[in-house]
Design a protein that fits this description.
The protein has five helices and seven strands, in the order H-E-E-E-H-E-H-E-H-E-E-H.
């Protein structure tokens, strides 16, 4: 338990400081989807994502910056979903009760998945939580945001607006 608390503290401080900046994403290819849906409404067909701007957020309920970021992503989703924004949450929790309790208390409208095998985190070379990948309409990664800061939602929204204007 002490080790877990120490790890949470370290990751929270680390992600709040150095990792909140928008960085170039690692060379990843978004060609498949191996996580399992957390609800029936979260069904996702990979082909349906083409021509959309996609945000993919890797998060866990023990991660304080993750919990702070999710409501912002939900607001962006509600605002831009009719214009072609798709938001996908990829949960990396080991404690499923903690995750479920969090989602019950803080529901989101976007699709939520569970990366049980942690394969998606490996495929996307996730190094810290939260990690938010931004994909253009051709499903090419254009940005990676690690951690969370107060200026992140505004910068992200501006980027979403620009990407939604681009032709597929």
């Amino acid at each position: 338990m002490k080790l877990r608390l120490l790890a949470v503290l370290f990751l929270s401080v680390w992600s709040l400081n150095a990792l909140s900046k928008n960085t170039t994403p690692p060379n990843v290819e978004f060609k498949s989807f191996s996580a399992e849906a957390l609800s029936k409404g979260s069904a996702l067909k990979f082909d349906d994502l083409k021509g959309k701007v996609v945000l993919m957020d890797f998060w866990a309920s023990w991660c304080e910056p993750c919990k702070e970021a999710l409501p912002h992503y939900n607001k962006l989703y509600k605002k831009y979903k009719d214009q072609g924004l798709v938001v996908i949450g990829i949960n990396e929790d080991d404690d499923l009760k903690e995750r479920d309790d969090f989602l019950k208390a803080h529901p989101v409208e976007f699709s939520m998945f569970y990366d049980k095998s942690k394969q998606m985190a490996k495929d996307f070379k996730v190094q810290a939580l939260p990690s938010l990948f931004v994909f253009d309409k051709k499903l090419k990664p254009v940005s990676l945001y690690r951690g969370f800061s107060e200026d992140k939602p505004q910068a992200l929204e501006k980027q979403i607006q620009e990407l939604l204007k681009d032709q597929p």
